[in-house]
Amino acid sequence: MHVQIILFDGFDLLDAIAPYEVFTAAAMYAKEEVTVKLVSAEGERMVTSGVNQLKLRASEKLVTQSGGIILVPGASGSVDANDPDAIPVKLQRATETELSDLLTEAFHNPDILLSTVCGGSLILAMIGLLEGRYAVSHHMGMDLLSTTGANAIHARVVDDGDLITGGGVTSGLDLALYLVERELGPRIAHAVEQLFEYERRGTIWRAEGNAPNESQKEDSLEAPILESSNQINELIDFQGVWDTTISTPIGKLSVLLHLSAENGRIVGTARQGKELVTLDNPVLEGNTLKWTMKVTKPMHLTLKFTVTVDGNEMHGVAKAGMLPSSKLSGHRIS
Asked: Its domain of life (predicted)?
């Protein structure tokens, strides 16, 4: 069994070290060879963690061509959404390195079992790898995980086949023990538990067995029909082509909005570069227009927009989970 634990600038120490300890202990009990390495996208280097800037050495570059387990930790830092050094910003910075391409390669390698601890799942989600997949993250990042198109599951550890994700920081112990059980068997996992005097917590969630009864029906996502002429008249203020700028914590995006009314419904599209997407569920509430929209830049997200219009000027915000709100401003060009 070959395990690679990824280090990136700002990583959380416990996310990486707890699994490292578990896998190393398992190697003492296993008859087969077990190797555990700390790696980075750049190769051998000292990597600064998000905990008091403590550094660990990555011994080599992440390898994605062979098989084994790859584990992605989360980040440590400020939880203030407006802090430029907040955890989501650190995670996004990690996706802007070669790590993004390497994880994509690993994700599509059938011989690799990809795993994450805490916010590590958000790194995969931000580069568009978790859409439609079952996963968990730290409880403060679950809303953000959902906005990327993942099926966010509130569980200690989620097993989605070739993807295993753990929840909070200490879930690294539980996730690693489960991986040891999966790969080396329950007796070796139990031996490690005895050595550490720690018993794995929680039920491993899988998309198997009987589903629990749903207590609430899903809300309809169908766009509302405008019922009164007053609403139609209000909508006219929004119709047209809008040249807008969305100011995010990691840069500005230029987006061209097309808004109109068809058969009493609000419809619209947004163009960012060569990418054209449809506005989902646009609804007019008084003088405020709201909609959701999937974007792939600067990361894969579903953003919730709230905007108002004053003449030919548009202002508003876009929000996605725990990420800081992004400001939208623009003007009508036709």
From this structure: Bacteria
218: in domain: no
Evaluate whether residue 25 is within a structural domain.
Answer: yes
| Distance separating alpha carbons of residues 76 and 88, to the nearest angstrom | 10
Is 215 within the bounds of a domain?
no
Helical (H) or strand (E) element with 192:
helix 186-196
158 plus 270 within the same structural domain: no
Select from 26, 29, 21, 2 the least CA-distant residue to 117.
Answer: 21
Helices (H), 5-158: 13-29, 87-95, 99-107, 120-126, 142-147
pTM reported for the whole predicted model: 0.76
Residue 197 lies in a domain: yes
Number of domains in the chain: 2
314 and 332 Cβ atoms separated by less than 8 Å:
yes
pLDDT of residue 215: 57
Q: Tell me: do 21 and 146 sit in the same domain.
A: yes
